[in-house]
Design brief:
Blueprint: H1 2-9, H2 13-42, H3 49-58, H4 62-91, H5 108-121, H6 123-137, H7 141-160, H8 166-200, H9 203-216, H10 224-241, H11 245-265, H12 267-272, H13 283-304, H14 309-316
Helix pairs in contact: 2-4, 2-8, 3-4, 4-8, 5-10, 5-11, 5-13, 6-10, 8-9, 8-11, 9-10, 10-11
């Protein structure tokens, strides 16, 4: 293992990045193969490839919803967690790398609570930047393409959030909130963020570079800016706290809030709650955004007292191990 670690560390960061991307793509291939077999047993999906893809792409049946939840979960585990774990092993770890908490701030729970509250408080900013994002694309050919992707994604999202039993709620919470929160943060904040930081010599470029890729891989371009901002926020939390679990908790709260709302409010929420443009932006939304901005500022200022940013900066830039 030490030989492999030494060989990996001696690679140019670009080659390290390419290697991690190759591991991710290999994980995706494995997840597609595995999900085809497992879904046939668990979700009763057909083994015929064309029929199988049609059921998953439309998600109009219980088998289609079950298949999508299971396939997405396997993809998260094999691709994102697999690549993140590979980087953790070959890089030798570090502050904020991997799921270990060693080297982080001793005030973890203050950061964890702050991450959860700030994620909820960021909701109106996600709504506002989503509108801005779509407005910036209007009048372009790309807007038509992006709108088509959004419509397809909305069909699948509504199908997976059409929750009518507690069992379905539990499985949705695991597949939509728990696994993605761990797997995506493990890769993007735990691997790509420090890799980009060492490559560029800037922690900020590491944070925003990984946030950019984090948003891009979702292929939902009306939400590109808000998702990138959310990813960057998680990135700064990881560096300030020295603990990736702060980002995982924030990510979980963001995803779980949609699952919980869908379970408790049902079809009415699915019709309007998933569409930021369902209601016009008015005075009440502006006031709420201002209040939440103050909340986020106050929490950020309070957490800065416990920040270990300066120590973590050196680790992120490869100046100490």
């Amino acid at each position: 293992m030490k030989f492999l670690q030494e060989a990996f560390r001696n690679l140019h960061p670009l080659l390290q990045f390419i290697f991690i991307i190759c591991v991710t793509l290999m994980g995706m291939s494995v997840s597609v193969f595995a999900s085809t077999l497992i879904n046939a047993c668990v979700c009763d999906t057909p083994t015929n490839i064309e029929e199988y893809q049609r059921i998953l792409s439309t998600a109009t049946s219980d088998a289609g919803v079950c298949g999508n939840l299971l396939m997405n979960s396997l993809n998260q585990i094999f691709a994102f967690m697999g690549a993140g774990f590979t980087y953790y092993l070959l890089s030798g770890g570090g502050v904020g790398v991997g799921l270990k908490t060693k080297g982080g701030s001793p005030h973890f729970w203050k950061f964890a609570l702050g991450a959860m509250v700030m994620t909820l408080a960021f909701a109106p900013f996600l709504d506002l930047t989503y509108r801005l994002n779509e407005w910036l694309l209007q009048g372009t050919d790309f807007h038509t393409y992006a709108a088509r992707l959004e419509a397809q994604a909305m069909i699948l999202t509504k199908a997976m959030l059409d929750i009518d039993t507690f069992g379905r709620f539990t499985s949705s919470l695991i597949a939509i909130a728990i696994i993605p929160a761990i797997a995506e943060e493990y890769l993007f904040r735990g691997a790509l963020q420090p890799l980009f930081a060492k490559w560029s010599g800037s922690v900020h470029i590491g944070i925003w570079g990984s946030a950019f890729l984090f948003s891009a891989i979702h292929f939902q371009f009306f939400g590109f800016i808000p998702r990138m901002l959310l990813g960057a926020g998680f990135g700064y939390l990881v560096v300030a706290s020295g603990n990736i679990w702060t980002a995982i908790l924030g990510h979980f709260i963001n995803n779980a809030s949609a699952v919980i709302a869908a379970y408790y409010f049902g079809d009415e929420w699915l019709e309007i709650g998933l569409d930021p443009n369902s209601e016009p932006w008015g005075l009440s939304q502006a006031l709420l955004t201002a209040i939440f901005a103050i909340v986020i500022y106050m929490i950020t200022k309070r957490l800065s007292v416990y920040s270990v940013w300066s120590t973590n900066k050196a680790s992120y830039l490869g100046r100490e191990q």
